[in-house]
Design brief:
Blueprint: H1 3-12, H2 15-37, H3 51-57, H4 61-70
């Protein structure tokens, strides 16, 4: 869809719908501006965590389950 067709479609909408599109455009512009302003972290090769290291250092599933269950009342069965 080109810009002329998009403008034509917007002009054919009711006034309330046009206002909604205007609000949406403001939202999208704000969102992309915020994303653009977030500084990216530069990572060097030695700082990157590879998948093998992740797996070797990941907590055991049993430990995760125990931590999750500890937060619930005792009368709830899993």
């Amino acid at each position: 869809m080109n810009t002329a067709q998009l403008l034509n479609d917007i002009e054919q909408l009711p006034t309330e719908a046009q206002h909604q599109i205007e609000d949406f455009i403001v939202f999208i512009k704000t969102r992309y501006q915020l994303v653009k302003n977030i500084p990216r972290q530069e990572t060097k090769g030695e700082n990157k965590l590879d998948f093998k290291s992740f797996l070797l250092n990941a907590p055991k599933l049993e430990e995760i389950d125990l931590e999750r269950q500890r937060d619930y009342p005792k009368d709830i069965e899993f």
